[in-house]
Structure formats: structure tokens, C-alpha cells
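Anyone have C-alpha cells for Pyridoxal phosphate homeostasis protein? Sequence:
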Amino acid sequence: MGIKQNIEELKSKIPSEVTLLAVSKTKPLEYLEEAYKAGMRDFGENKVQEMAKKAESFHDDVRWHFIGHLQSNKVKYLVDNVHLIHSLSSISLLNEIEKSFGKANKIANTLIQINIGREESKSGILEENLYELIEAIEKCNFVSVKGIMVIIPIGDEESNRKYFRKTRKIFDELKEKEYKNINMNILSMGMTHDFMTAIEEGSNLVRVGTGIFGERNYNLGGESNE
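Reply: yep, here.
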């Protein structure tokens, strides 16, 4: 099936209130154009330079999501290009986002990435360090947290549900509290192989790459987020 058919099939399965994010990392612009023509406006990239380059020569109404591990020295390149940063995971990164976006007098919309499976190979803040990060977020003037993102350990459906439920519980607990810079609106869980389970457990944003664009031809390394 082609990209258009893949998107139509996905949209027929996904409730209208759930955002489908096309993970377009490593994909050429002609693939993105096909997805755009099929109605996609949310695209996810995991390399700062690649995203900036694509944003420069693609449609202006696209919402670019940064979904990869974000290095502090690359934050400044996101200021004019990013709709949502999915990978806020440390106080040092938070401080860099605050500084870079503050210089431009712009607000950075972010998701806190939690390492829910406590995997050494994955980015994300550990649960026990979450409230320390939240305290630091509350002192910011140019960072707005919109929700949570997780990349769960590879497992079966039962294991997936366990991690999704654990994340949903944290999301719900934070949602009940009053914060200045945090509004729990987005729960980004689920990728090509587990997005339906994630939606059943409360996800309202799913990151799908292979399910839209097909198998990647090559692997540039790093953690998978689709």
C-alpha cells in the first residue's frame, strides 16, 4: 500500500480526538509531500538540522515536532522551527530551552519525556526525579509543558499496557494539580506496533513512522521513537 492508503487506514482506526503524528525522520521530502496531500500536518523529526532544513523548504502550515534526544547545544536551532518539543528530560536541558527561547522572547511548548521502563539505553527523566524537574519548570518564563511522552520497553501487549497505565497514572496525578507552566493536555504514547493499545490506555497522540512510510531502508542509530 502507498502512503496515502496507509494514512487513510490509520485514520479509520484512530478516534478523531487522537493526533496522528507522522514520524518523518530520514524520509525525503517527496514522501512527506505525499503524506501532506493525504491531510497530514503533524510531522516528527529527531535530528535538529534535518528538521530545520525540511521546515525551510516545506509547507508553512506544517507543525514540526521534535521527538529525538535533544542536545543542549542544538536547542537554539529549534526556536523558529518547532511546534512541540517531545523530549524535555533534564533540568540542564530545561535551562538551555529557557535561555534560547527567552532570547527570542518566544514560548517553548514541550512534553516531559519520562523513562518509564528505566532503560539505560533510553532518554527521559526517572519518576523519582520528576518533581525536582517540575519545580524548575515552574520558575521558567519561556517554557510551557503540555503533557508527557514515553517510549516504552519492547514487550508483549500485557507489558505494553502495564507501562501505558503507569504513565497515564502520572499524567492524571499531574493534571489534578495547579501549576503555572504545566497543563497536562497531551499524552504521547504508542507507535506503529502498539498505538491501538496506547489509545485504549489514554494516549491522545501517537507517533507512527513505519505504519505510514513503510520500513526504513537504513538505520541512523539512536533510540527508536516510532
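The longest strand covers residues 143-149.
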